[in-house]
Write a structure and sequence with these properties.
alpha/beta, single chain, two-stranded parallel sheet, 147 residues, globular, eight-stranded mixed sheet, 27% helix
Length: 147
């Protein structure tokens, strides 16, 4: 097991299986189809992300370097939380972008009963270490344990 210290963007504690991408995560392309058409597993719809395409995202620890793409990304993330079809948490190796941060913070403030901890600045070593299926535990203080 390894521990990584990051910065808390939205608080919470959770344990979930990891899904990992070393590419930028396009929130709109990844979640739009699943949210529009009721995919219960919320499989990643971004055909350009070979690491995640077709993999379920709901309830997973989404490990990524950054988000990319449309300015609607924050709204899509907020909607995923409002529909309870969100990842269990989002764990960024680098700094979170303003759109993803806005979606996560809005969901944290406005969506009652849904928690999606978000931690950034975990470092490149975090993304190099974590692999799909590993168990990830997010602590309230921004410590992320990977086993």
């Amino acid at each position: 097991m390894r521990e990584f210290q990051g910065r808390v963007i939205t608080p919470g504690e959770v344990t979930a299986a990891a899904v990992v991408t070393t590419q930028g995560f396009n929130t709109l392309a990844s979640l739009q189809m699943a949210l529009q058409f009721g995919d219960k597993e919320v499989k990643c719809g971004d055909q350009n992300n070979k690491e995640l395409h077709g993999k379920p995202l709901i309830g997973k620890a989404l490990c990524l370097p950054q988000t990319i793409g449309s300015t609607t990304g924050g709204l899509v993330l907020y909607c995923a939380c409002a529909m309870e079809k969100n990842p269990a948490c989002m764990l960024f190796s680098g700094h979170i972008d303003s759109l993803a941060a806005a979606g996560a913070v809005l969901a944290d403030v406005w969506v009652e009963g849904v928690s999606m901890p978000v931690v950034d600045s975990l470092g490149d070593e975090f993304l190099a270490y974590v692999k799909d299926g590993m168990t990830v535990t997010v602590k309230a203080n921004g410590v992320v344990e990977v086993a």
